[in-house]
Design goal:
Layout lengths: L11 H12 L3 E5 L5 E5 H17 L7 E5 L4 H12 L3 E4 L6 H11 L1 E6 L4 H7 L8 E4 L16 E2 H6 L15 E6 L9 E5 H12 L11 E4 L11 H8 L2 E4 L6 H10 L4 E4 L1 H14 L8 E5 L5 H11 L2 E7 L6 E4 L11 H8 L3 E3 L4 E5 L14 E6 L17 E2 L5 E11 L4 E7 L4 E3 L2 E3 L1 H9 L4 E11 L3 E10 L7 H8 L11 E4 L13 H7 L9
Parallel strand pairs: 1-11, 3-4, 3-5, 4-8, 5-6, 6-7, 10-11, 10-12, 12-13, 13-14, 25-26
Antiparallel strand pairs: 1-2, 8-9, 14-15, 15-16, 16-21, 17-18, 18-20, 19-20, 20-21, 22-23, 24-25
Bound molecules: adenosine-5'-diphosphate.
Length: 547
């Protein structure tokens, strides 16, 4: 017997329709590429998304055709999130920090038909457009009078002229909720990038889950600053959850330096911000020397790479801001776990609570996870045993776009497919998962594993260290030994010996790095994470002391 409730597909258009009807006057504020501040409401957003949908129809784009963006976080990008997917096309957000050749490769692989870009990326588009034959319309996200006279890009249109010529009357089509809605290529640190192809169903379920109190905890009372880019994994789904909750949205545009982000937080009374650790490093680096404080910020979600405990303490103790440590990946839409305490933890001493909130957290309903050993057998949840982390759920990839890489899933005894995350983790009895490392970064020393994240976190707790990256170096006896590359905080001093002594008592003796290498900067990849492959290249002539 089937249930007798209404059957209505979960579509992204329903989010924007809901936003317009139920919190149409909530504000969306954007710092534009031009540098000024733009303000409008969800009502305006919905009307312009409909104009865009009409423009795509006029372009004769078919159902599931791809429309790409090269854009910062801003209102026009937000319109594309809804106008493109809502009308049945697939939004392909491209990471502009990738190499131009890689961008051209991705555009061709996705067979993008329209590509809309912020003016910042005009030189990039000029460099790649001739290599992208599938793109039949290039659109600059600007006013008509800002369009350069001689861009060299055939038929280039301004977004405002393009959608301005269209009516705001449009009825969002109804179709199968499993239809593709958007896509995002993984950074492809090894081999060619592969695309996760999200569906309307996966995106709306993720939007519900992300808003939950023990997840991102978004509400109509929040003023939310997603620093995490809309060009990578849908800004952790915030645009969709924002439409669902009616929070005020504050978009930082291209200005991601500490000063600009701080000023925006204060000016727009941001209560909630989301980003990767490197962004918060810049923010705290700006605030500390100037003795600045926050007047409104209450919570920040930090994820994408391990959040150093020193950063959690700096936010919580120094500024009264609660840090929510999050873990996920492109293939997971991206949220998998968030770290919030349980009721039974509230009476624990602060230090005990701190040990918990450093972890990557508990699985969200909709994500099932387990750790397995080399034989594929599930390992215990004891907080000590580590294994390969596998996940499954309705917003986790089943396979990649165009079947790249074959079937990625690992079948269990009941035939259910689990996605291998490539992360090594522990899970404790309360279900808190902690990432030990990415499997390719873990350091294998004398048959034991050393977590590069642990080694980095200790260095980052030293007052003179701004950034730390730990990698394994070949060793004839131990196989690999860890070394730590560090960037000193400006105006501070620390010697190799002092830093090594700082490790004493904080980790097992055999896990203490063999050496410290002082560097000017740690290479950062397109998504703001440390690029260990690049660091290893830079250190290719390095030899461990005594070898
Ligand atoms: P890429 O495109 O670099 O593969 P993703 O943005 O999908 O990137 O990154 C996913 C990976 O980032 C995870 O598998 C994990 O290794 C790492 N990661 C994400 N969040 C965290 C976190 N909070 N702590 C540690 N590692 C994290």
């Amino acid at each position: 017997m089937l249930g007798l409730m209404q059957s209505q597909p979960l579509l992204i258009s329903s989010l924007i329709e809901f936003a317009e009807r139920h919190h149409g006057d909530a504000e969306i504020v954007s710092r534009r590429v031009e540098g000024d501040i733009h303000r409008y409401t969800y009502r305006d957003l919905a009307a312009r998304a409909r104009r865009l949908a009409n423009a795509l129809d006029a372009q004769q784009l078919q159902f599931s055709d791809r429309v790409a963006t090269l854009a910062w976080n801003g209102y026009r990008h937000m319109e594309m999130y809804f106008g493109v997917s809502g009308s049945g096309r697939v939004l392909h957000t491209i990471n502009p920090r990738l190499h131009p050749d890689q961008i051209a490769w991705i555009v061709n692989h996705a067979e993008d038909q329209v590509l809309c870009f912020d003016m910042t990326f005009l030189p990039l588009v000029q460099a790649v457009h001739a290599k992208c034959p599938t793109v039949k319309q290039w659109v600059a996200l600007c006013d008509a009078d800002k369009l350069p006279a001689d861009s060299g890009i055939p038929g280039l249109l301004s977004y405002e002229a393009w959608i301005g010529a269209q009516s705001a009357d449009y009825s969002w089509p109804e179709f199968d909720e499993n239809s593709a809605s958007s896509m995002c290529y993984t950074s492809g640190t090894t081999g060619n990038p592969k695309a996760a192809l999200y569906s309307h169903r996966s995106t709306t379920l993720h939007a519900y889950a992300a808003a939950l109190p023990d997840v991102m905890c978004l509400s109509a009372r929040d003023s939310v600053l997603p620093v995490v880019p809309m060009f990578h994994v849908n800004a952790w789904g915030i645009p969709y959850s924002a439409a669902l909750t009616g929070c005020k949205l504050v978009f930082p545009g291209p200005a991601l330096d500490g000063k600009s982000v701080y000023e925006l937080i204060e000016a727009e009374q941001v209560t909630y911000a989301a980003g990767v650790p490197t962004v918060w490093q810049m923010l705290l680096g700006h605030m500390k020397p100037a003795g600045l404080t926050f007047s409104s910020l209450k919570r920040t979600v930090i994820g994408g790479s391990a959040c150093p405990p020193a950063m959690i303490t700096a936010f919580q103790e120094g500024y009264g801001v609660t840090v929510l440590h999050a873990w996920g990946m492109t293939e997971m839409s991206p949220l998998g776990t968030l770290c919030t305490l349980k009721n039974k933890h509230l009476s624990l001493p602060k230090e005990e609570q701190m040990k918990i909130v450093q972890k990557q957290g508990r699985a969200i309903y909709g994500v099932d996870m387990k750790i397995v050993g080399g034989d594929g057998e599930e390992l215990p949840w004891d907080g000590k045993t580590y294994g390969d982390l596998l996940v499954k759920g309705p917003w986790i990839v089943g396979s990649y776009f165009k079947g790249e890489g074959g079937d990625p899933l690992i079948k269990d005894s009941r035939g259910r497919g689990w996605f291998p995350t490539g992360d090594v983790a522990t899970i404790d009895a309360d279900g808190f998962m902690q990432i030990t490392d990415r499997s390719k970064d873990v350091i294998k020393s004398g048959g034991e594993w050393i977590s590069s994240i642990d080694i980095e976190n200790i260095a980052m707790a030293h007052p003179s260290i701004q950034m730390a990256a730990c990698v394994g170096m070949p060793h004839p006896k131990w196989d690999e030994r860890p070394i730590v590359a560090v960037v000193k905080r400006p105006g501070t001093e620390v010697t190799r010996e002092e830093l090594l002594a700082f490790y004493e008592g904080k980790t097992a003796k055999w896990q203490i790095p063999d050496d410290v290498v002082f560097v000017d900067a740690i290479p950062i990849g397109a998504t703001g994470k440390m690029l260990k492959t690049k660091l290893r290249e830079l250190l290719k002539d390095y030899r461990l002391p005594g070898l």
